[in-house]
Amino acid sequence: xxxxxxxxxxxxxxxxxxxxxxxxxxxxxxxxxxxxxxxxxxxxxxxxxxxxxxxxxxxxxxxxxxxxxxxxxxxxxxxxxxxxxxxxxxxxxxxxxxxxxxxxxxxxxxxxxxxxxxxxxxxxxxxxxxxxxxxxxxxxxxxxxxxxxxxxxxxxxxxxxxxxxxxxxxx
Length: 171
Description:
mainly alpha; flat
């Protein structure tokens, strides 16, 4: 659900960024998180998960602990997006903060997706990939103020340092 939302946002964002306000994007993200948490609650009540279900040849395991952790992550993301959406400085149109609010919803979705997959990891490689997925959000945050040369250089340095450290870990 969250992966599909990220793909839809990335495809439609270049065309609709001038016409859709940041509050609309944040509200759509809140609806997606609410729906994903509803699906998780329904799965908790409907399916008895005694030993869990493994996916993709044992890479991910879905059990009761995963569903509870996933629900907690969705609730925290829901609370964060509600606090961003209630900020008055993001409600003004055509301000730089409006675009930061849109990017913050993307960053939060990346973090939620990485955290959700991290809970269900059953293998060391998938654990590593989920941590890297969560680190993408930190790379975006370091270079969020793209008009500042310091922010851009810090983001680039942090990305290169992360790439080098990831290469050493994989070796």
